[in-house]
Every structure is written in C-alpha cells, then in structure tokens.
Specification:
Oligomer: single chain
Bound molecules: NADP nicotinamide-adenine-dinucleotide phosphate
CATH topology of the largest domain: Quinone Oxidoreductase, Chain A, domain 1
CATH superfamily of the largest domain: Medium-chain alcohol dehydrogenases, catalytic domain
Order of helices and strands: EEEHHEEEEEEHHEHEHEHEHEHEHEHE
Number of domains: 2
Number of helices: 11
Distance between the termini: 20 Å
Length: 369
C-alpha cells in the first residue's frame, strides 16, 4: 500500500536558500487521467532550480548566477521575479526536473504497460493535442511539481521506460543538460568534422555538448577552469583552452592549428562573449541556452552581418528528441558524469556546493536514503 504523506523539499517563494523547506508530511501527488505516479529513485540538480528560486530570469537582474546570489537571492518582490517562460511560478512548488524512478500507480487513462517500469521523465510538458506549440510548453519541476520528493507525477507521454545498467543516480544526470545540449547542436545544424567551441565545458550542459558533438562526428574544443582540464579531455574534447584567454583566436590557433571555428555552443556568455563571436569563421553559427557568467553582453553588429553569422537561441525542445536521447543512453553513446549525490534533506548544502563550480558534470539528489 502506498503511504499518504511523503518527504519533500518544498520551495515556498522567490529568494535565498531559506526558501527551501524540508517537509516529512507533504501530501502524495494523485495521478489523474493520463498521469502516472512515480517513486523517485534519484533527481538531478540544475542551475534552472537556482535561477528560478532567486528570480534570475527577471529582466531586472543583469548579473550572472554567482555563488553569493545563489545563496541569498536578489531580494526581488514576488511581482518582479519570473520563471524561465516570462511568467511567475506559483508556490509552494517542488522543484527538480531530472527524475529517474519507477511507475507505481496509474491515472484512469494511463497505459497499463507503464506500470512497474523504470523510467526517465521528459522534462518538457506539452499540450499533447498541439505538441509543437512552444507557447504551451511548461517545464517539469518549474510550472508543475518535480522530483525533489519521494514521489512525483507526470503525464504518461512524458514518461520513457529505459533499459540500462546505469544506477538511478547516474541516469538522473542526463535529462536537462543532455537534452539542452542535443537541442543546441540541432539548432546550430552541427555536422561531422565541424569544430564546435564549448565554453563552460566542465558543467552539466557543457560536458554533454562535448560528448554529443563527438557522437555526431564533430570536433569539440572545450573552454574550462584549469583544475578540470584532464577530466574534460577524458570525455572527448579535442583540445582544452583556458577559461579567460587573453586572445581566444590565438589560443585556438595554438591548440587546433586554426584561429576560427564553425560553431560556438554557449551557456556562459558574460565578458568572454565578444571573443566567442570573433572566433567564428565567415558563415559560422552561434547557439546559446544559458548565460551563467552574465546575460548582458557587448555585441558589435558589424561582426555579425559582415561575417554572415547565424545566431540561434535554444530552449524548448521538439517532440521526439527525448526519445532519441534515451536511445543514446541505452546504447552507451554518452556516459554519465556523476559528480556527487546528496540526500533529499541536504538539498540546501548540495546547492551551496554546486554553486562553487568545483565539480565536473552533475549533482544528484537521492530521496531514498
Ligand atoms: N535554456 C535551457 O533550457 C537551459 C537548460 C540547462 C541549462 N541552462 C543554463 O545554462 C547555464 C549552464 O548550465 P549548466 O547546468 O551547464 O551549469 P553548470 O553545470 O553549473 O556549468 C556551468 C559551467 O560554466 C563555467 N563558468 C564559466 N564562467 C562562469 C561563471 N562566471 N560563473 C559560473 N560558472 C562559470 C563553469 O565551468 P569552469 O569553471 O570549468 O569554467 C561551470 O562549471 C545556466 O545558466 C543554466 O541556467 C539553460
């Protein structure tokens, strides 16, 4: 028999870490219609959780996601803050998008075949009668409750059975970072033998970009902190450049024999941004899904139009891409980079450690033990 109450980490409003409240008496979600109830085996952490909590997506915020702001928040009024989609989210909210777990109950319209299955959750919730409509997309663990709890629920169409000998924690490293990275490569149309420059290559999305660029035969070149160079090289980077090069084209020339690249796949932005654009070859493509070092950048329009550059944003994911990702994981075409696991009640401590950016890969919350 399933219990009626569960342990959960509940976000009570926009702000600092104090807005995360550990509860042992939270009501279990009830699956309705096509939804399924999932016992969470592990749930990965992302910057999105922190950005949403501190209200970073608000236009009034102009700085990057720093360790200090990640702990204290920006002190925004509720009306001034917003979620990733431009609208406020409602509280209380259970965050956590990257769920690996088991289906333990079904709504009245959910397929019997899912019962008992080990699954990953596709983090992009859609109106399945209009699945390509990006205005109707919502994010699991942001606009609905997610996986920082013992149990969660999701629409059956978002629930993908997986056959894998990776642990739950390892499987919980993939969803947000890898689907974002694959979508960036798709948006930039990355082909075999093209060079893809990846700032922030030690992080969740960056390390996935390195692996997924290799997977499609492209040549990833990483930028990361000096302490992480060996690990980043070991996941497939052709070359690894320093985080703050004096002259990025010169560093590229020294590393790969040419000063320019076909594609930049960026989640960092900030002060390095003009150099990233400067090292694109004529006709090059820049794709972006984050701005951890700062969202406001200096942009010389002449570089853009005189070099026939293409810039793409990459956030919402087309239907079908998550199923492709599950295939890559099952066939071990990409591997997990599990940097650490934390118990559910230590989510605040886990976020403090995550914000220090001393790790390579992803942190995962384990609600079981
Ligand atoms: N649009 C979307 O759907 C989507 C999805 C996922 C993530 N994102 C966004 O993408 C960004 C990166 O996400 P992630 O999960 O890959 O993050 P992450 O795991 O924290 O990695 C980010 C990496 O960026 C590097 N970095 C460079 N300059 C930095 C700075 N000033 N402050 C902090 N880190 C800096 C760090 O690596 P080094 O120390 O090695 O340089 C860090 O490990 C975040 O802003 C996140 O919100 C967006």
């Amino acid at each position: 028999m399933i219990q009626k109450r569960m342990r959960a980490m509940v976000l009570t409003g926009y702000g600092g870490l104090e807005k995360l409240e550990y509860r042992e008496d939270w009501p279990l979600p009830t699956p309705h219609g096509d939804e399924v109830l999932i016992e969470v085996g592990a749930c990965g952490m992302n910057n999105t959780d922190i950005n949403t909590r501190i209200g970073w997506y608000s236009k009034s915020v102009t700085e990057g996601t720093t360790a200090e702001r990640g702990e204290t928040g920006f002190g925004l009024e509720r009306e001034a803050a917003s979620g990733w989609g431009g609208n406020g989210i409602s509280f209380p909210r259970i965050q956590g998008a990257d769920v690996c777990g088991r289906v333990i109950a079904l709504g009245s319209g959910a397929p019997e075949a899912l019962m008992g299955k080990r699954v990953l959750v596709d983090t992009w919730l859609r109106d399945w009668s209009d699945p390509d409509n990006v205005d109707k997309c919502r994010y699991f663990g942001s606009e609905t409750d997610g996986g920082f709890a013992e149990y969660t629920k999701a629409p059956a169409k978002n629930v993908h059975p997986i056959e894998s000998d990776f642990s739950d924690a390892e499987l919980a490293t993939f969803a947000t970072s890898s689907i974002t990275a694959e979508n960036m490569l798709r948006r930039a149309g990355v082909k075999a033998d093209e060079v893809v420059l990846v700032p922030g290559a030690s992080g969740g999305v960056g390390s996935a970009l390195i692996q997924l660029a290799r997977r499609r035969g492209a040549i990833p070149v990483a930028i990361c902190a000096e302490t992480k160079v060996d690990q980043v090289r070991s996941i497939g980077a052709e070359a690894v450049l320093p985080r703050s090069p004096d002259n990025l084209p010169a560093a590229l020339e020294a590393a790969i024999g040419k000063p320019q690249v076909e594609v930049v796949a960026d989640v960092v932005g900030g002060t390095l941004w003009p150099q990233l654009i400067d090292c694109l070859r004529r006709g090059g493509r820049y794709t972006c899904s984050g701005a951890i070092a700062g969202p406001i950048v200096e942009f010389d329009l002449r570089t853009f139009y005189l070099n026939d550059l293409t810039l793409t944003g990459a956030t919402t994911i087309p239907p079908g891409l998550f199923a492709d990702l599950v295939g890559y994981i099952e066939r071990k075409e990409i591997k997990p980079l599990l940097a650490g696991t934390w118990p559910l009640e230590s989510l605040r401590e886990a976020q403090t450690a995550f914000l220090k950016k001393q790790h390579v890969g992803n942190f995962v919350i384990n609600p079981v033990g």
